[in-house]
Amino acid sequence: MNSDITSVRNIGISAHIDSGKTTLTERILFYTQRIHAIHDVKGKDGVGATMDSMELEKERGITIASAATFCEWKGHEVNIIDTPGHVDFTIEVERSLRVLDGAILVLCAVGGVQSQSITVDQQMKRYKVPCIAFVNKCDRSGGNPFRVIEQLKEKLGHSAVAMQIPIGAEAKFEGVVDLVSMKALYFDGDNGEIVRAEEVPADLREDAEAYREALVDAASMFSDELTEAILEEREIPESLLIEAIRQGVLQREMTPVFMGSAYKNKGVQPLLDGVMNLLPCPSDVSNEALDMEKDEALVSLSSDPKAPLVALAFKLEDGQYGQLTYIRVYQGTLAKGDSVINVRTGKKVKIGRVVRMHASQMEEIESIPAGYIGALFGIDCASGDTFTAPNLSLTMTSMFVPSPVISLAIVPKDNKSQVNMSKALNRFTKEDPTFKTFVDEETGDTIISGMGELHLDVYVERMRREYKAEVETGQPRVAYRETITRMAEFNYIHKKQTGGSGQYGRVAGYMEPVEEEFVFDNQITGGAIPTQYIPSCEKGFRACMDKGPKMEFPVTGIKVVINDGASHSVDSSEMAFQAAARGAFLEAYAKAAPVIHEPIMKVVVETPTEFQGAVMGLLNQRRGIIVGSQDEGPMCVIEGQVPLSEMFGFSTVLRSSTQGKAQFTMEFSAYKQVPKGVAEELVKKLAKDKKNAA
Amino acid sequence: MEKKEIIGRNPLKMMGYPAEDILSEGGFGALVARAGVGKTAFLVQIAIDKLLRDRNVLHISIDEPVEKVCLWYEQVFRNIADSSGVKQLDPFWELILPKRFIMTFKVEGFSVPKLEERVTDLSEQGIFFPQLILIDGLPFEEMGRKTFVDLKAVAESLGVAVWFTMKTHRHETPGPEGMPKPLSSVEDLFDVVIELQPDGKEILVKALKGGPPESNASALALDPSTMMIRSAAAAAASGRKAQ
Fold first, then answer.
1. Which residues are CB-contacts of B171 (< 8 A; sequence separation ≥ 6)?
2. Dihedral of the CA atoms A515, A517, A520, A521 (nearest 10)?
3. Considering CB atoms only, which of A616, A625, A672 is closest to B125?
4. How far is B107 from chain A (nearest CA, A)?
5. For residue B106, which of B128, B137, B132 has the smallest C-alpha distance?
6. How near does any CA of chain A get to the CA of B175, in Å?
7. Is the ipTM of this complex over 0.85?
8. What residue ranges define each of the domains in chain A, with the CATH number in brackets?
9. Intra-chain end-to-end CA distance of chain B, in Å
10. For B110, which residue in chain A has the nearest alpha carbon?
């Protein structure tokens, strides 16, 4: 392992699904000699690279998109960390973004910045990940890297500057002019592995000078030395220019744009040079953890390998020898034989084998110092767990996990699938805290729940593919909730004296709406309810929250205050007060104007302008509120808020209404009250379902 | 009760106009000021007042993303609610959200036929029927008189009034009666022109055309920290306090 942390790069490749991320990753692995042959991405039938690359990713998923693939380039160690691109996988995306120090934002020269690129970019902004951009598919008809640069500026607000200009356009794309060295780069050999540097072609000279001037001008903002050199009209050394650009990138104030065609083996090596020269090493980035003892206050971590350990398990994989846990060390060193604490469980863990994924085999190592990524064997943990030295209570990820908004019943097709399904569910729930599973007591069905339709679809697909578990899925069900809208009082006596020992308890007080899920406030004075029965009262009220009296949905946002009551010296018991609390809850709930809440999604559709009306119609039909429309020249972005229950099958309808030219992203926005008419429908449906079940 | 209090903060009523809606159907109003003085905040205050009176507002913004316009509304609404002592914001917010539609264009992408097509599209599908149009950030100098004449025709056919914001420049000498230069060629199309003028630490609100009746007129200022409107006397008092 290289001991120089400045030569380590932990990077992600973030991209829109069709922009050629798989092909680019494949080429990077080939040029860094991680793999030794380039697979023909384009199928025999010549359908086109997009579909094929998706197939390839499916087939070779673990090789190409494994959690952290290690490779080396010109003496630098590069860990390529897989970053899922869809908003549905919030937790997974956020976790990978925590692990990487820099990213390559891949954009398609034809499609440019699309709605998913916007989502990916927003996530990077949120985590302040410095990035460089790569405009891929410059060989495609209609490909125009300069238009993409403009879009980067306009749509994403990046200060994007070309590092190169293309030699030839579309099908005649031959190579690039590097604006730092002012050399024309061509890519020879069967697989473009030989980079040939030539003089800049005469017809491009003027353009190249102009773009270089723009680059130098932009970079001068970050280097006084460079500014001086410009003012004094001195020769600008390459290293000075690169350092200035690097400062711009680290501050996220500048996005250098590289270009090429991964499929045609052009422009990948200069991009790799860009990764080494411009993206940060682990010590350039300041990382923060949350202090559990100080209400998750932020604490800065030092990249000192001698400091107390803080490490994050960011991905789990099923390997030949059991669970492989990918881990990034942020502070201190994680060594074989160490005893560390899993902050989530509070348990002490002894580190066994420490490895690094190297070429096609694993390399046993002794320790992982701060800034490095490695993997552990034989550790029982969940993805997202933080490991620290004893006496530290820091966590890398917030313990807050959003509640799932959608659920689906799954039924295994046969016994073998049943067993495999259990294994798969066990693994997925460990990997992803937003993915939950349970057995419905009434129907006996296994229910999976998560953050969106696609989120669940992917897990069902993974069950089939990775675990050979064939399952049938039911209709997706939205996670409705119940709550109250006004204050209501209760004064309930639970009295039972029929046979055996009697039961007596009186509970009085009121309930009112609150922001929190549930608040219990004991304001009893003078022992109206003996202290030992107060927890029973709370338990009784809390039990009612699981299934609301109105529609049997979980109840949220209720504060219960008890301020009076009565007990009996013989007949009062914990049981009696639990029952009294339940009765009190039902009494007040009915008077507190209960309503049903449903998850509302923020939906952003990007469509060619001619379909704008149709798309708005589609959202409107789905009880959506259209917040606004943004004109982007030939394209238009429509933003709306739509109930999740109305979004099932939207992608198919959107495709057919827009000739497949529109796309959309969706993320959870808030819970809002269901309109009266819809609530009545829900009541009817529930009654019908109950009747059928009976 | 609370809603009434919020509506009571209608900036135009506070200026002394007898009615909340001072523009007739097809009428044009302009808010003029230098950059950063508070045109958009004033415009959004007019919009929120209208929205709370159950009217639909189409907010057209030139060169600003939808998200940024939303933020303006959230901020101004919060400020209004704070100053009116409203605690529960959500119910009002829920009420006004479906009544607002934001449309944004690039300068080069904006044209009257395009706008008309979009509005027709919305109303034909029963999605949105504007009852007031706000156009924020339209560069008056670049547009030419025809754009405004055409816009007037559209506004008349829709039966709605239109409020514009117009940016003035420090170096430009105003025309007669203080009318800003970019407005000179289209002034006749406008019924009301209100200027926001920085004056020391204050921003004064002054009607250049179509002002309120003299008897009602009261001096107003914008609070530079919140961009909310308040009486000039209150502004001066708080200014003295700060000193």
1. none
2. -10
3. A616
4. 10
5. B137
6. 35
7. no
8. 5-284 (3.40.50.300), 287-395 (2.40.30.10), 406-477 (3.30.70.870), 486-592 (3.30.230.10), 597-678 (3.30.70.240)
9. 36
10. A631
Range of the domain at B30: 2-242
3-state secondary structure of A206: helix
Number of domains in chain B: 1
Q: Enumerate helices (H) and strands (E) in chain B, giving the number of each.
A: 8, 9
Inform me whether the C-beta atom of residue B69 falls under 8 Å from chain A C-beta atoms.
Answer: yes
CB contact under 8 A, A628 and B101: yes
Residue-wise pLDDT for B14-70, tens only, equals 776 766 678 888 899 999 988 888 889 889 988 988 898 889 999 999 988 888 898
**pLDDT tier at A635, thresholds 50, 70, 90:** confident
Over residues A106-116, the pLDDT tens digits come to 998 988 887 66
How do residues A137-189 score in pLDDT, each as one tens digit? 999 988 899 999 998 988 788 899 999 999 998 889 999 999 999 999 999 98
Distance CA B179, CA A153 (A): 36
Closest CA to A10 of A295, A368, A400: A368
Q: Where are the alpha helices (DSSP H) in A61-201?
A: 61-64, 90-99, 115-126, 145-156
pLDDT of res. B63 = 84
Give the residue among A214, A267, A268, A266 at the shortest CA–CA distance from A245: A214
Q: What is the pLDDT of residue B99?
A: 93
What strands, in cross-sheet order, belong to the sheet with A518-522? Answer: A488-496, A503-513, A558-566, A518-522
Q: How far is B31 from chain A (nearest CA, A)?
A: 23
Residue B123 is inside which H or E element, if any? Answer: helix B112-124
